[in-house]
What does this fold into?
Amino acid sequence: MFIDEIKVYAKAGHGGKGCVAFHREAYITKGGPSGGNGGRGGSVILQADHDLNNLIQQYYQPRLIAPDGEGGMGKGMDGHAGKDLIIKVPCGTLVWRLPSAPKPVAEEDDDGELEAEGKPTFFPTAISTRGLIRSAGDTRAQEIDLSLEEEEISDGKMPAPQGELVADLTENGQQFILCKAGRGGLGNRNFATSRNQTPRFAQPGEEGDEGEFIFELRIVAEVGLVGYPNAGKSTLLTAISKARPKIAAYPFTTLHPQIGIMEYPVDFKRLTVCDVPGLIEGAHNNVGLGHKFLRHIQRCKVLVLLLDMAGTDNRKPWDDYKQLLKELELYDPALVEKPRLVVANKIDEAVAEENLKQFKKKFKKISVLPISAAFDHGMEKFRETIRAKVEAAEKAELPE
Ligand SMILES: Nc1nc2c(ncn2[C@@H]2O[C@H](COP(=O)(O)OP(=O)(O)OP(=O)(O)O)[C@@H](O)[C@H]2O)c(=O)[nH]1
Ligand SMILES: [Mg+2]
It folds into this structure.
């Protein structure tokens, strides 16, 4: 299972209570206050880890709750602090904080009864994506909210995570405090003064932060492969890297993004390449696998538009090219602004030469790189061209 978007609930630990105690010992009368401090709670901390590639861990454990701090004790003993809960997430995880539900405020109405104001909003938990199952007699039916479905299809995109973007974890080891722990309360010995030598009070601990968050994974890769199903994206990834995705002659073989690393042995340069499932016409209306996976190429520096020059599925490469650009633009206009490389695959087939000639006639300004991924033809040229493009894009990004 590949999970790239998940809702979680997180709560940091409460600080421990301060203690009210007095020193008692034989022959020492009125030993004075001796209540220790409470320990702080544990924080919930996110840490980016390059060994992970999706958010499956949070799918099975959507509640991230850090332990509370221990209370203070007599004889001046402080309570233990709660242990921080460190949650590992893949590099490229964006964290959105959802607006918190208003807490019910109790108010007295005319009859003198307490009435709660501001209904708490209902948030379904991360794992309860299945509709409610209702049963009457022997029949059982699943409740589906049709209004939600219509909305999704009408604008084509997945509903954007609402809320505020609080973190973007891209580097391995980068940490972010998702929920800060509450401080422990001070014990009564901190409050002894010359005028109040027996303070009979101590501080309660502070509450830890809590909230609901959406984790969204956008893979960090330099190169993104985009193309129709069966264009040979996975075959190309296999030819240039050690990744071994499934390859077959039917559409939608690849069901979720695959990552490969292209290595240049001369100077040990490495480029990460991301193969996303095939796009088809109407993807913006959620046809095929829809736009769901295009978020993974949003961070890419260079896009490779892979065209099936042999037209194996009875499509014309020039139509594919136009349609791909259209679908990319409909998803995010920034994607068509990215530097891109047009690659003509399956050049080993007889019709491909003819198609390539026609393609070049139609788009005179576009340079096309002919390859045959299955027969390792043109791979060296591809590796060099893509490296030059990525380096040019990196240079352009640098501030002058
Ligand atoms: N003749 C020829 N066939 C190729 C070439 N590259 C890929 N194929 C074939 O095209 C078919 C589809 O290849 P895949 O790599 O699975 O295509 P894909 O773009 O990853 O497809 P999806 O994962 O379904 O989106 C396979 O049967 C490959 O053997 C090539 O250069 N020449
Ligand atoms: Mg594939």
